[in-house]
Amino acid sequence: MDFALSEEQELLQQTLRGFIENECPPSVVRESFDAEAGPDPGLWKGLVELGIAGLLVPEERGGAGLGLLEAALAAEELGHGAVPAPFLGHALACVALVAGGSDAQKRRWLPALASGEAVASVALAEPSPEGSDAWDPAHWRCRIEDGRLRGRKAWVPQAAGADLLVVALAGGRLALAETGAGGVGIAPLDGVDRTRRLDAVDLDAAPAEPLEGDALPRVRDAGLVLLAADAFGAAYRLVRMSAEYAQSRQQFGQPIAQFQGLKHQLADMALDVDPTRSLWWYAAHAFDHLPAEAERAAALAKAHITDRAVQVARGAVRAHGGLGFTWECDVQIWFKRTLFDRAWLGTPEVHRERAAALGGW
Amino acid sequence: MDLRYGEAYDRLREEVRDFARRSWPPRGDEARLDEREQQIRFRRRAIEAGYLSRSVPAECGGGGRAVDVLAETVIRQELIAADVPWRSPSPQGTDMLVPTLLEEGTPEQCRRYIPPTLVGEMIWCQGYSEPGSGSDLGSLQSRAELDGDHWVLNGQKIWTSSAREADMMFGLFRTEAEPRSRGLSYLLIDMRTPGIEVRPLTMMTGGIDFCEVWFDDVRIPAESMVGRRGEGWKVSKATLKHERMLIGDASYLERAFEDLLRLARETRRDGRPAIEHADVRQRLAEIEGFVATQTWASHRMLSAIAADRDMTVINEMMMAKLSLTNTMERIAELSLDLLAEGGLTAPTTDEGGMRQGWRTPGKWVSNYMMSLGLSIAGGTSNIQRNLIGERILGLPRDLRP
Ligand SMILES: Cc1cc2nc3c(=O)[nH]c(=O)nc-3n(C[C@H](O)[C@H](O)[C@H](O)COP(=O)(O)OP(=O)(O)OC[C@H]3O[C@@H](n4cnc5c(N)ncnc54)[C@H](O)[C@@H]3O)c2cc1C
Questions:
Q1: Is B160 in the pocket of ligand 1 (CB under 6 A)?
Q2: Which range of residues forms the domain containing residue B167?
Q3: pTM score, two decimals?
């Protein structure tokens, strides 16, 4: 029994961490966060050179042929650094193509996605006036007629800048649409997490072709795990930022960390976060190797970890006092990262109910 | 990453299963022995086979095998599943005293105390807490003074679990003039020595497990000390090294959660099983998030220890007690809501409260209370928070005397 990372996996993670510390320190994150335009493509290029774009693409298609665990390790680092990069949508588009693409579709797209020559994203949710779950395929209405895609999608991560969109159709099948082929209108949404911009996508007779296989369940499960890992990375960082701040900030003539009330809040935050590393590790491993357990493990991990992460992020603001409530303080950037992770693909409530149903309760 | 144990362990699993089937319940003449004697015989055979006290040296009555946490986990899983009396009749003895002696005891002490403790013939209690000294053990006042070749003990211990049944106590006593923990020594005390009085305390559940233990000029032989004079604090911490063997175990929590699921299935609310109600499902799934976290965190610790690498898991091991007791408290809270008017039932602590593995309302109420006991015993939750804050987050220590 070996529930540990291999040397290669550790190396991958360390390499990414080193790169992010150098190339994407908080000052760079902030610049991008406050900028009108989306993230700096230079940063993504650097990440692509480290192989991040092709992690999930098979070797024979020009990728690294690695599993979701490796992608989740990357997601942890991106969350830890609040890195403004189009990783989430890109990785999920790769999952969609690998799981559901025809040979021709794979040949056409996977090498380009792996090399970073093309960037992709996924358009899943639709606004639902009835207040139903926007991520529930039962409510989607996007359709293909005569090879043309019609419908509206929202909360698409970094659609602006993407070459390819994987679009979810009514009933849950997926289709490919090129953003440059006409009929794809992209409008920025005022999203909470400015490190991962969201767009609304208007599909008005966009040329599109359906994916051959039924890949949505794999895309969803992979997404749930990546969000959990991202939230873990962000929350872990917030706990450490708060502990550091508590040691430097003086009140009543001593570091505030000396006050046990605060010390215990910080300890509880660490307790909420640190052990959950193993929960997303397991969910990622199940996705790669234990198909019977994968779906439920992903649902539980996403619900639990993103829920804890948001609570921890609130604690981080409290620990920073008035400063923590300012735009100027970096805490708000990671705070918003966790809000994204919590809501995207559905709230903890939705996934807890799925876990209940899948558990036969 | 590979969650399979592999062929060697799968074979071990089969062997343990087979052993359990052959060895329990007792047959023939043994079936007529009293239960305690039956259990002692079972334990003796299991130790010989290397299934209990596996890594304790053979000359101390153990299995004499190399340390192998994976083997221990596989064995424990199978013994639990087979419902044999694998649980130590004296956890204080097997889990605390034995590792301490192995680390700090003389060969004579090991030879004398370890073998009977392992099989369950010698029951131990832990005499640390005193009325004035719980979290702050360094302040304890019970004294031992050397008089010729005897230590003479005076003072009082409190909340001492199993003191009534215990044959022996390991305890901390003040022997030196040095202040606080530097003045303490670690002593082994025969509970039948004249001058010891055990007064049972009734717990809030109505059960009796812990006691006051009074010492009035109790004379014990000078060689009853483990380690040197004034080193009692260090000796009492020696067990911590061994605790890592015990901690990577989420099975306690997993079973408690299974019981809770069963309660939710069998309890009716508004004419349907409670488990069909959305709010109950939400709370169950939230709790399962904590339980699964503990399960996989313990797998991670286990494989790190087995491979003797990645000791960052030590941090998470420090968190294990508080994670466990917090989750037990969540389970307890939901159980009380499910019980509804059943929560008006007085707690029952006797094992009769468990009918064929199913808990009666009184047993649930008792369980609800016991989750608090867990959060207090062995270092309260606040003490755990101090530990996490200081050792893991590097925050300053509390001001201490
Ligand atoms: C079921 C059970 C079994 C037990 N079995 C044994 C046994 O076999 N042997 C034995 O020796 N003892 C035993 N104990 C005693 C147990 O170890 C002590 O009760 C425990 O260490 C707490 O000490 P205390 O009761 O004096 O509480 P106190 O130390 O007085 O604590 C009271 C409250 O103050 C808080 N507190 C104390 N110090 C701090 C601090 N520095 N920072 C923040 N908060 C603080 C505590 O968290 C707690 O909430 C048992 C207790 C229970 C409940």
A1: yes
A2: 124-229
A3: 0.95
